Amino acid sequence: MATLPAYIFHTDCLKHEMGPQHPEAPGRIGAIHDMLLIRGLLDFMQPYDAPLATEAQLARAHSSLYLHSIAAQSPASGSVQIDPDTSMNPYTYRAALRAAGAAVLATDLVLTQRAGFAFCNVRPPGHHAEYGAAGGFCFFNNVAVGIRHALDVHGLERVALVDFDVHHGNGSEDILRDDARVLMCSIFEDKLYPFSGNTPRGANMVNVPLPARSGGDVMRAAITGQWLPALERFAPQMIFVSAGFDGHREDDMGNLGLVEADYAWITRQIVAVAQRHAHGRIVSCLEGGYEPSSLARSAAAHLKVLLGLDD
Ligand SMILES: [Zn+2]
């Protein structure tokens, strides 16, 4: 039985496009794929094609009204605007089903010991997708679909979600608030899209807004002081990661001023908690990160730690 970590991808995810100037572009996941290949990191992982999520899987995180509305809006040609930042082309719906299906497959592989951890290099991202609404480049909340699959299908009782994207994961909070089986820990830049998160919407939310230009030291202190004690108390049986790399100092989307070493550091903290409580079980799903070079280098730093190759 293969025990290599899983790398989940699908070429359908390259076909969803929102216009030539849109930052959430197909080249993002291509840049990550190339960097992992160049650095030799894909040699240590088993590649899998992302399956299409089923309606039953999506319905664990989204209303059926919303699922039917997004399917109905999928255009046969041209594009349809869903919110000011988010649009669908004829391939978007399928790409979104793949991105959510990746999280489901990742969960199955990790919970059946076919992979120690899994990384989903997929788009569209998911953490702004709410129970009943798309938004912020997101259609289905990939991590929330994976988390509910782990809880409802595999029967786990405690799952943590850690979100280090520069933007608050309002969609994940909307879906997972008050689900006592979930602890969500996030850091995000204050006063930035989607302008939420300062007041947590559930007792299971550890929201840490950071002022613009905080830098890595402030971020690390926030995680050490606020995430880690909560994660320790919660003792998750599995950890999902909303891995957004748009807090990098080269990424214009935010101003947290993080660098690759900071993403490696965060990942080491996540791995340590997972090893103590969760048999090392981690599913990491790509969220944001819009400057292809810093995105690819940061994702490689993240994976190098997950693979245990960082020292
Ligand atoms: Zn983001």
Question: What order do the helices and strands come in, and which of them pair?
Answer:
Blueprint: E1 6-9, H1 27-38, E2 46-49, H2 55-58, H3 64-73, E3 80-83, E4 86-88, H4 92-111, E5 117-120, H5 142-153, E6 159-163, H6 170-176, E7 182-189, E8 205-210, H7 215-234, E9 238-243, H8 260-277, E10 282-286, H9 292-306
Parallel strand pairs: 1-2, 1-5, 5-10, 6-7, 6-9, 7-8, 9-10
Antiparallel strand pairs: 3-4
Helix pairs in contact: 1-9, 4-5, 7-8, 8-9
Structural features, described:
- With 311 residues, this protein is α/β, with parallel strands linked by helices.
- The protein has a single domain (6-306), classed as 3-Layer(aba) Sandwich (Arginase, Chain A), CATH 3.40.800.20.
- The chain is 38% helix and 16% strand.
- The protein has nine helices and ten strands.
- The strands form two sheets. An eight-stranded parallel sheet has the order 2-1-5-10-9-6-7-8, with helices on both faces.
- The two termini are 28 Å apart.
- The model has no long low-confidence stretch (mean pLDDT 97).
- The structure holds zinc ion.
- The site of zinc ion has 7 residues, from loops.
Give the strand line-up of the largest sheet. Answer: 2-1-5-10-9-6-7-8
CATH topology: Arginase, Chain A
Number of domain units: 1
- Give the CATH level 1 class: Alpha Beta
**Rg, nearest Å:** 17 Å
Shape: globular
Helix content: 25-40%
Q: N-to-C SSE series?
A: EHEHHEEHEHEHEEHEHEH
Supply the helix-strand structural class: alpha/beta
